[in-house]
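Render this sequence as a predicted structure.
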Amino acid sequence: MNSKQKNRLRFIGAVILCAAAALVVALYFIQVIHGKSYAAKADRQYVKPAVTLFDRGTIFLRSKDATNVAGATVADGYLIYMNPSVLVAPEQTYQVISKYIKIDHTDFIRRAGKVGDHYEELAHHITADVAQAVGGLSIAGIGVTRETWRSYPAGEMSAQTIGLIGQSRSSTTDSGGVEGRYGLERSYEDVLNRPSLSSSANMFAQIFSGIGQTLVGSGEKGKGDIVTTLEPTVNSFVEKTMEQTISTWHPDEIGGIVMDPQTGDVIAAVSLPSFDPNNTSSVKDVRIFSNPLVENVYEMGSIMKPLTMSVGLDTGAEKPDSTYDDTGTMTLNSKKISNYDGKARGVIPMQQILSQSLNVGAATVALKAGAAAMYKYFSSFGLGQKSGVDLPNEATGLIGNLKSGKDIDVATASYGQGLAISPLQMIRALSVLADGGYLVQPRLVKEMDYDDGTNKTINPVKVGPVLKKQTVDDVTTMLVKVVDTALKQGAIRREHYSVAAKTGTAQIADHVNGGYYSDRYLHSFFGYFPAYNPRYIIFLYQVWPKGAEYASATLTDPFDEIVGFLINYYNIPPDR
């Protein structure tokens, strides 16, 4: 064989090898990278392509033992449909298939009689055994096809936070016809969405179906699952506690947040009333899909007083052992403010401002520190700005009154009136007392696990310190005394655990007639423990509870129950 022939054979061999390599690469991309898509397309070629199959990443809740629990996933089942144009005996057909699926007789006969109609959906989310049984009947005009849908195993739990999907509003969206509309479904749409599936078949999907599932590392770059900070058992307990509170006090709205003040991890996020994301057909007001924990702002009341006290101590305007003359009332800019009972206490120590929740005392501290300092510090606590939490439509807190230059506005702000803050921004601000003076950014997602086998960890973000460590320790000591001696006369004091807490009661603004309702209040409650090395901070609120004026009556017990649960569930060691 001469050299030309050898070169020709080498060239032919190289071409064959390149072609083989190209085929292997093509098969890899078809079966490994897009295997699920083509498998679904293959399934659909044998039936009427009346529904859109889609895939979507899973939203996981993270249990305390680091086990992932699905909060939102894609369920797989079957759809039973009817072709009225070829259905011969509607009544007989109904009698047969009604043994397998629940269907209204009148509705079935009505739809079976539609002249020229070729497609009517009869039942969704059918199990494989029922689908096989119905398909095995071989009734002309009755068909079975595979379908997928978004499933929320957690039901109503943290529904506004996990969110919802809806039909794509953009014709260019290649996500199976759906997109995230609310909550984390929307915030992480770019990670969770998947390419849409057409009804056309693919020969490789038919011949090599299932190969992709046996190989490791398949997936599309940038697409995957998200792992949240939400702990399912804690969320469930907080939700049950809130439900019990509703049954007693009948508020218009109630919510609770449990957060790790060191990392900003939101362990529980509960807002009621809620909804079942698996069945939204009965929802009459779409506003229930929104998340009031981040999208609504409220005048929070006296839980603002610990922050006011921290400003007074941090600026040196006051000391922990300072005293003041409590006159019971004050007139500022021709407007009168007073303690909750209007009574004067005389010369008393700073501690009593928090223990007795005295408005005149808080105003005295704020006015002594000055309007400029109050605005500077409250801004550094994250009030008046978005927290940066990974949820959509976050509201911006309203603290503009502190810039008015009026003493009355500084005074009312000191005890939580005239400022409007979201629950999440409020717990974030208060967490500076539980994290040594640092301001942490709340987060709902701690990790993204991509389909290509890689993952990304989202690290905690904090700034500061915005308060001196000594200030934090002094205010914490004062709040521990509130729990040990003042709240329910010390009835919730824990012998072996230091707990720092404060209640809040605020009048609700009358946006129709102006001013405030005389009989409607927002109750709030926050606390953290163990007080000098906090593991968790808790924030609770309810809008217009009926039958009690003060938050100490309605939220002290729910708070104490949650503290006790967390101590036992996480086996937190005692600190005193």
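Summary. Residues 40-47, 198-218 have pLDDT under 50 and may be disordered. DSSP finds 20 helices and 20 strands in the chain.
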